[in-house]
Amino acid sequence: MESPSWNPTADPHQADRERRFGRWSQRMVFVTMLLAVGALVSQGSLRPALGVVVVGAVIVMPFIRLVWLLAIWLHQRDRAFVWSGIALLIVIVVGVVAAALRGR
Amino acid sequence: MLPLLGLVAATTAALGAIGGLGGAILLVPLLVVTGTSPVEAAPLGLLSVVAGSVAAADRHLRERTVNHRIGVVSELPATSGAVLGALFAGVISDGVLTRVLALVAVTAALGGGLRRGLRNRADPALSHRDVGEWIGQAAGAYPLNGGVVPYRAQRLGWGLTGMAVSGLVSGIAGVGGGFIKTPVLSEIMRVPVKVAASTTTFTVGITASAALTVMAVRGQIDVETGVVVVFGALIGGRVGAALQGRLSPPMVRRLLSVLLLGVAFVLLVRG
How many CB atoms lie within 10 A of CB B49? Predict the structure, then answer.
């Protein structure tokens, strides 16, 4: 066991932040599920419109979590990980643009 | 047909959330076998991955089993590899690639399944204030059976190389790659399997969202069927995360091994 070399530097506020984000995420999931039920039982033009909202919400949520993380790490002045997150976002954007252009 | 699709999406998302596999690797072949074209099945599989990831977030955050820092750092080479792989898709024949992926899945299954006991044990010197990810480090601690278990991502060079290769292979093959990422985190980087699975569930959600953005721009997503998959996977992701919380780490590892053998079987049948 390597316990003597562990150097725990947990942020005392991190648990609260994660719980708050978890609750927000849970609410979003609940609302998305309600919208999905609405899309499944509705008729006419409302059905695809609600479907687009549901699919769009699901696609956007992971990016919101990534931006939330960057904000926290910035607040904690954890620069190395902020740069890692920014680099990841750049790679994703480059990948999406490259894939979209390649498909045309 | 649609209720059955929702049920299948819920099941694969639940299995994906328990083992950090994503679940598309199981859902897409099932859809193709039942008559959906691969072009339509791929976005539905990715939707199930994102919805499962989003639904599992609350539970994983509450149980403090997800390490975002390790996730983001390991996802960087994986996504870079996936972008390169997607650009060079077609350089390796599908048959060879599928067999390689199946071999990787079997190796990972044996690596985790044959290992006994726990690598990371509770440290009495740590308190619940130390639980969570640690600032400035690819390390942290998670609660287990009333104790606090510290961990640190080890063999970073090998681990990040493994992530880049997993991204490259998954980019070429058009699969999510969660079934490679969780074993790389767990067996190479020595991250506890629950943390590895929760962290991969978080990262595959980001990767799948990026791929879905491209598919949405191209108009490849069947929204009406997609809603059914999303609904099922939102339920499945929550159930899977809750089940993972109740299982012991060795049990999660064994279940992951069984799932990986299932993935290898599916890949070989598909190939």
Answer: 31
